[in-house]
Write a structure and sequence with these properties.
This protein is α/β, with parallel strands linked by helices. It has a single domain, classed as Putative cyclase (Glucose Oxidase, domain 1), CATH 3.50.30.50. The protein is built from five helices and twelve strands. It has a seven-stranded mixed beta barrel with strand order 4-10-9-7-5-11-12. Strands 2-3 form a two-stranded antiparallel ribbon. Strand 11 and strand 12 form a beta hairpin. The longest helix is centred in the middle third of the chain and has 8 residues. The radius of gyration is 18 Å and the shape is globular. InterPro entries: KFase/CYL, KFase_sf. It comes from Rodentibacter trehalosifermentans. GO terms for molecular function: arylformamidase activity. This is Metal-dependent hydrolase.
């Protein structure tokens, strides 16, 4: 029997990009009856899922996404043998790996980017592959319900290195072309080197938080 494999980027307090806090509110060492940890973290940090309200006022939130969307069989878009620093994932690149069958509506990228650089390094974010505008438009032309990325997929994401946020939204191409159409985005997977098949069974479960535009997400997969 195939085992479940975790593709989640663990939430930590020492990541170079995000500031999160994990604090003991109950501690055995202090004589407390229970260990009780309090967590503070962005809903768009580490492995997470985006809802449309992330980019559109008044749109649906994370709890409005049906579980049928993020549970099921995913087709693997494998670029692991082609990825280099600043690799542009264009429409031409995507067409070369796109499945001939039209049965798939759920997709996951396998670039193994975290084997090139640690996800806690500046190089992981600053030298990353990225989806081009025509690549995102090509994805948007397919019948996709959900797509998961194991690299920082929009080029402007690297702007955090210089404390900049590029505008307009159209520069953030997967959000502009895909999320705006209602395609669910799952960002910042790791450990995709463990994917060994072209199709996987996956559970991509966001934390149930009311009225939020995203949520931290646990991603578990089985090879088929």
């Amino acid at each position: 029997m195939n085992k479940w494999i975790d593709l989640s980027m663990p939430i930590s307090t020492n990541h170079i990009r995000w500031k999160s806090a994990v604090e003991k509110k109950g501690n055995f060492d202090n004589g407390d009856l229970f260990e009780a940890t309090q967590l503070q973290v962005s809903c768009h940090a580490f492995t997470h899922m985006d809802a449309l309200s992330h980019i559109q006022k008044g749109a649906y939130n994370i709890l409005d996404i049906a579980p049928e969307i993020f549970i099921g069989d995913f087709h693997v878009l494998d670029l692991s043998n082609r990825i280099t620093d600043n690799f542009a994932v264009t429409a031409e690149v995507l067409k070369s790996i796109w499945p001939n069958q039209q049965k798939y509506k759920k997709f996951i990228f396998k670039t193994c980017w975290d084997t090139h650089y640690s996800y806690s390094s500046q190089e992981f974010w600053g030298n990353a592959p990225y989806i081009t505008d025509d690549g995102a438009a090509y994805l948007a032309s397919q019948q996709i319900e959900i797509i998961a990325f194991d690299f920082p997929q929009d080029y402007p994401i690297r702007g955090w290195l210089t404390n900049t946020m590029e505008k307009p939204l159209s520069k953030h191409v997967t959000h502009h072309h895909l999320l705006i159409k209602g395609v669910t985005l799952v960002e910042y997977l790791c450990n995709t080197k463990s994917i060994t098949s072209s199709e996987i069974e996956a559970l991509m479960i966001p934390i149930a938080i009311e009225n939020t535009d995203g949520a931290p997400c646990r991603v578990l997969i089985k090879n088929k």
